[in-house]
From TrEMBL, chains A, B:
Keywords: ATP-binding, Nucleotide-binding
GO MF entries: acetate-CoA ligase (ADP-forming) activity; ATP binding; metal ion binding
Descriptive protein name: Acyl-CoA synthetase
Pfam families in the cross-refs: ATP-grasp_5 (PF13549), CoA_binding_2 (PF13380), Ligase_CoA_2 (PF19045), Succ_CoA_lig (PF13607)
Organism of provenance: Amycolatopsis bartoniae
Amino acid sequence: MDKAAVREILDKVRAEGREALTAPEGKLVCDAYGIPTPREGLATTADEAAALAEEIGGPVACKIVSPEILHKTEAGGVVVGVQGAQAVREAFGKIVENAKAYHGSPTITGVQVQEMLGGGQEVIVGATTDPTFGKVVAFGLGGVLVEVLKDVTFRLAPVDAAEARSMLDGIEAAEVLHGVRGGPGVDLDALAAVLQKVSTLVTDFPEIREFDLNPVFATADGASAADVRILVETEEVTEPVRPSREEILRVMDRLMNPRSVAVIGASDTEGKIGNSVMKNLINGGYAGAIHPINPKAREILGRTAYPSIGEVPGPVDVAVFAVPAKFVPAALVECGEKGVPAAVLIPSGFAETGNQELQDEIVEIGHRYGIRMLGPNIYGYYYTPKNLCATFCTPYDVRGGVALTSQSGGIGMAILGFSRTTKMGVSAIVGLGNKSDVDEDDLLTFFEQDDNTECVAMHLEDLKDGRAFVTAARRITKKKPVVVLKAGRTAMGARAAGSHTGALAGNDKVYDDILRQSGVVRAPGLNEMLEYARSLPLMPTPQGENVVIITGAGGSGVLLSDACVDNGLSLMDIPPDLDEAFRRFIPPFGAAGNPIDITGGEPPSTYEATIRLGLEDPRISALVLGYWHTIVTPPMVFAELTVRVVEEFRAKGIDKPVVASLAGDTEVEKASEYLFDHRVIAYPYTTERPVAVLGAKYQWARAAGLL
Amino acid sequence: MDKAAVREILDKVRAEGREALTAPEGKLVCDAYGIPTPREGLATTADEAAALAEEIGGPVACKIVSPEILHKTEAGGVVVGVQGAQAVREAFGKIVENAKAYHGSPTITGVQVQEMLGGGQEVIVGATTDPTFGKVVAFGLGGVLVEVLKDVTFRLAPVDAAEARSMLDGIEAAEVLHGVRGGPGVDLDALAAVLQKVSTLVTDFPEIREFDLNPVFATADGASAADVRILVETEEVTEPVRPSREEILRVMDRLMNPRSVAVIGASDTEGKIGNSVMKNLINGGYAGAIHPINPKAREILGRTAYPSIGEVPGPVDVAVFAVPAKFVPAALVECGEKGVPAAVLIPSGFAETGNQELQDEIVEIGHRYGIRMLGPNIYGYYYTPKNLCATFCTPYDVRGGVALTSQSGGIGMAILGFSRTTKMGVSAIVGLGNKSDVDEDDLLTFFEQDDNTECVAMHLEDLKDGRAFVTAARRITKKKPVVVLKAGRTAMGARAAGSHTGALAGNDKVYDDILRQSGVVRAPGLNEMLEYARSLPLMPTPQGENVVIITGAGGSGVLLSDACVDNGLSLMDIPPDLDEAFRRFIPPFGAAGNPIDITGGEPPSTYEATIRLGLEDPRISALVLGYWHTIVTPPMVFAELTVRVVEEFRAKGIDKPVVASLAGDTEVEKASEYLFDHRVIAYPYTTERPVAVLGAKYQWARAAGLL
């Protein structure tokens, strides 16, 4: 890679105040990074053009080169399929003539004479600068597929070879690249190499704002970019400030494991937020020091009150704010003077009500004093390992491995209600609100190394710094699943963009692809986020892709199969010996294969024998059970036998994911609860949900490289 | 339409024992139905070919015509873009030579010389014979879109002009037909006319098994089929026997409203099916006569028992079978002799266990005596308006407007459990099992005219007679919503097919398109089927497309908007006067527009005023409410005020669909129930489900032509 050559071209373009590179400049940039382009040359006279065409051989394309003319075709500046010296000369003349007619007096650098490509598959390779994620690289098929069906895929740049290859399979029409109608496939390695080079180029030169290779002709022997379009940033490019992992952890640890908490605006008056927060800290059982701050009180709820945080004896780790917005800046300065590392800003009345100025003011104070701030405009946060309930809601006491965060207060309340009603074991619930400072990547960095957290679920509407999020997510998802509900996926609308790739990036697909690239599981809706969060930590990680359905109801078996396909699970192709082994337990008219239909009238022993075999055989990775309520095997009998067998195998060190769908009268509700309590994920009246949860576990395990 | 011409060609083809028409024969068929094709002629010598080409003008395509050669390209029998007399002569010679080399001694009818089409959009128009639905017509774009992305749409043939037009918008890439990259759109009327003509043709001639126009070139001025492929059925084509609507209703009425029921195999022994059925009939409160049939008893559960049904005094409307499979045929003959119109066959041990013979035997008996049969292999059926519980499950007593049916017993049990736990108002629950006789279209025909039923939900794995289903569904869905859970949508696999259209039809898309065409709402899963069934009859029919979201939580608003887009709902574009009206009620930093974000800290009066305005303004058709649990407006306060306002408007004759998503602590569960009880569809902890239910209502209303 010849960085110096690119640097020289870009400096020249910027020095001339241009936003776009000319085609020959674009070709030089491609050459410098080894991106293949057609043979070509620049002709300044008709005779030069004819000589170039002769040298290239075969038909050529002739294109105007003029800094003033960006839309060459529109200006009549392109003639394709030109063959023979005379025809090339004529094309040269016509192009120059058209250019003058189009623009008046353009600076004509010359006419580009280019080898005609074709015969392969037209694809688009591009890169753009996403407002959330920065440099992203894009890939799609040319023509209708990308323009009408938006069949395009994105990755954070730079991509490595494996990621580049994954992009080729990341589009709906991927099959086209492997050859259709008996035609040959394209050279996937060559195409992936182009993607990787483009991603390196825009990473090396952040001032390249948008980059289009459109079309690239991909053939069985290689890939060559027929047209290059490069736009540069005319303004200075700055990267966001990112604290180091150690800096983040130092303060996050103080926030989540504080030795002392001060409540600014603590109150004795029932119904006030400062009263609720005090009560929740005390009733929640927080064991550290609690300091009410209130200039008008000497004692609040039995604790000594101080007129200002400065007067609290000893250090304060967390200051929870329960005062109106207008009082926040002054109190925050006092926190800074006191050396408080973390502030929890419950009050609303900042950016969300249009008061951006007030928010900017507190951000500035935070920076000045090195205070990390949660909020403003939040319900507060819970961290159950410390019995810490710094919110105006009620305490939550079912400890467990799930950490949940929400950008919206309403969603936070839904998290709390759902958690309570399902008795979900929770490590933390955190409100992020306006995200003036602490955001998702800070929390992911903390939860990654927090032994109390096994799974993270996040509701978010946007990311302040998508790249920092991806970095943190990539680390944690290697160890723990992260579920993300990204709201606003249909409302982003198009952005003005100067390139094809830029225009295509203006939709939810960028978030979707990059979240997947970072290893997180994206939940399609709120309820799925909650159910995934509840279930994922209860399930063991599958050791392979072979899913087997065992069902007492043929009808459930069909629906469970549908759900497996919908959720990207692989129904195991049962080998003959295993098929025979299953057949020994089921009636002759039952169906082995997969689903294994044990039929409806069977006694508990048939369920037990087949489940046992499913757990025993090492080729089977996960079980999906379909239960049918009968008098012969009532719901609780099924639930108890399943738990007994599963626990027996767990004791032997064999722990496979087992999920169950229970079809029956209302008794199946209690049976499902019993199963859930024993880490068998079970739901009544639905064949989709247990499979969706298993699918989420698989999605995580694959992304984490565990399969 | 020249039917006689087509008849003559088809008769000739079948007389010759051929399965495929030659290209010239295909062209004549197209001509007879006014399907445009390129100018062309048949040449038997090289000179004739040259003369034809001269007459057509421009470049031509030359194609071998030989009954033995079906794959012309493969045989080297096609040369395209031939221009000039000499070139045409050479092409003729080469084609004949290739054909001989390919086949040995083919019958060479000649060489087809055809006008070259191009420049337009390549599309595929076809028809095939679906095993479930019979003649279906297909439409898709040519090339990768249809081959790789399977972007194709189907309708039951024949289609009217409106249905044909709807097909053009029924593909993902529909935008292409309207013109892309500034190009002109195609002549949609011309293309729709081709579709309609093809559908008429295959309807008029059922022996046409498969029909491909591939490609059709669609341009701004018309549409012309460049290649025609027609395959005929070599065996006799028979239509299934379909009882008339009156015949169906006569027996279905006896089945659902019987004056007397006999239980064959009634028993005094606890745990036996014949005992459960007797108890459920009696305890369920059925007021007609109940006759136990048992040769060994004189009385069962206080009712006189008879040794055989023949000895029951007076007529019997329904015979419920609770005897082992092997005893069914003899007892069924006795029912026939007695003149019983309807038999309910609970026993299993028929086709589902591989005993097809036994099933064929009972079907024959049924036909012989004119007995309509439900089952075999079912749990029985409920019809609550008659307190009729002819099943071995327990009685169900919450009467209401929902009729549910299931093909599978397991799913039937899930229906029962879900109904009970949600207190769903039910008119009927019917098991269909093996569907040896009575099937979905019989039930739809009954439910259509049953005043006790307002909504039908059906679980099905296949349809015995898809065309009869569509006919019945089209009638009833004009009046009442029908929800269908079609299982097995991912497992149909490909079928061997002789045409492109035939191959494409081998997937779930045929079911999906034709179910939609018939006006039913397809539920994506079991839980959705149950939730739609529960909610649809409780909601009024919307009067327009304008949906408005009113939310206390901005976060819920975003998720509710996502859900609206996902479910095909139109978020109203709020006009300035209405925007101003809403703004009067909400804080200055709240957001009008849509969602209307009243913000989180608002008192009940703000919810009330905005809901009131939403109901009042005639431009708004439906409301989606997003509630956020706060101390200022607790859950039950929100629920009660919403019900009060909605009921006030209902009393004034204004009844709009109102659905709600409640985000909050566990109290929102009770509030949701209260809302549901008052016909405001409300769910806690989910933003998706209330909107999905509203979406289902809209989908039905649109299909019924009510919007």
